[in-house]
Amino acid sequence: MRMPTTTVSALLAGTVAVSVLAAAPGARGAVPGEPDPARSQPTTSEPTDPASAAVRAEVDPEPTATGRAVGARLTDLLVPDGDKPTDGVPVSFGIGLVGVTGDPVGGYTLVVDETADRGALLRALTRGLDRSARSYVDFADAPHPAAELTEAWRAVRDPAVRAAAGLGAFTVDVDPESATLVVTTAGDAALRTGGADALADALGAVAPGLITVESGGAGGRASRSPDVAPHWGGARIVSSGTRCTAGFSVVRRSGGRASLTAGHCGPNGTSWKSGTEFYGVTRGRSGFPDYDQARLQGSTYAPRIYTDGLDRYSSRAVHNANDGAIGDVVCASGDVTLSVCGIVIKSFTATFCDDVGCTTHLMRGRRSDDRVIVRDGDSGAPVYHRNPSKPRASVRGMVIAYDQGGSRLYAERYTSIANHLDVTALTN
């Protein structure tokens, strides 16, 4: 079942569909979504080391309503409507939109080729908003056309090309400023021993001038324990030695509550515990690895996530859910790394590939200081936007992989999860 979204065609045609987010009753009888008295209450205790204290003290920039609206409409141009296209090629290539830079505070630059209808794009992003909306949108010429980048993207995904280039685990995404594809290897031995040029030459032979290769260091598909029922997101979950993180609580459209985790953590039927507490059984995993997501069912679940770490609160109630926008500042809250904020969403078009296959149309994000934000065991962690003054969160997605030694994360987007797993976020 598809979640109602604003489609590319609807935007360019001048109609806007409104996303629907269902709010379910709270898990507890007294105050829905409030912390269980048996658990730790949200705290604001300060870390002792100066570096961590500085991160926690950071204040996320807050866009105006107009900037937020432009960003949300731009997201709808960048992400698939419903199911992911199997080749992983960014859907915006189809309208000549190669990439985007900027944020909802300072505005966006759309990098477009000669096939793009700039007037239609401007109208789609600003129609019905106040006059200031136009100041949030600018255009730049793409050095390479979207059609050529499409062929280069497919070449990188081609198993024969990957084998010939000696390419193991890697990510691929478009660099909007150079209008080229950037292939980042995850701990590739050939690059560590000086084989970067050879790999670049091998990929460049199929797409001359369109692909840049970089070494990503450690990477891969990426706790709070024990977590008692009704369970929260961000908890440590363990099954037969495999350690992952629970995502966020959801409502199934067919009825009942569930939680989430990354699909690569285990097949359907996998039973998970948090400490000695039963957390749930993996259900709904399908289409893996293109969809690296699954439900956890069989227990009770509450609309709250653990956020202890470098957030200002130790937990937050989930009040909303959406994909966010390019340039948004978000947090990730895995069991191993705990909560880290100040992560900037750079893309919605990334692909992660390893020996089991490729996961496409992912959110990509990192901090400006390249601080480690994801480690092994954080897979499934919620990605969220924090309320600046209250212990509330708006969910953006779920961590599934990392590269660059953990300084760059890849996450399944909320709307992709909602569409594929037939769920909506459980909100307070």
From TrEMBL:
<keyword id="KW-0720">Serine protease</keyword>
<keyword id="KW-1015">Disulfide bond</keyword>
<comment type="similarity">
    <text>Belongs to the peptidase S1 family.</text>
</comment>
<protein>
    <recommendedName>
        <fullName>Streptogrisin C</fullName>
    </recommendedName>
</protein>
<dbReference type="InterPro" id="IPR001316">
    <property type="entry name" value="Pept_S1A_streptogrisin"/>
</dbReference>
<dbReference type="InterPro" id="IPR009003">
    <property type="entry name" value="Peptidase_S1_PA"/>
</dbReference>
<keyword id="KW-0732">Signal</keyword>
<feature type="signal peptide">
    <location>
        <begin position="1"/>
        <end position="22"/>
    </location>
</feature>
<dbReference type="InterPro" id="IPR043504">
    <property type="entry name" value="Peptidase_S1_PA_chymotrypsin"/>
</dbReference>
<dbReference type="GO" id="GO:0004252">
    <property type="term" value="F:serine-type endopeptidase activity"/>
</dbReference>
<keyword id="KW-0378">Hydrolase</keyword>
<keyword id="KW-0645">Protease</keyword>
<dbReference type="GO" id="GO:0006508">
    <property type="term" value="P:proteolysis"/>
</dbReference>
<feature type="region of interest" description="Disordered">
    <location>
        <begin position="27"/>
        <end position="66"/>
    </location>
</feature>
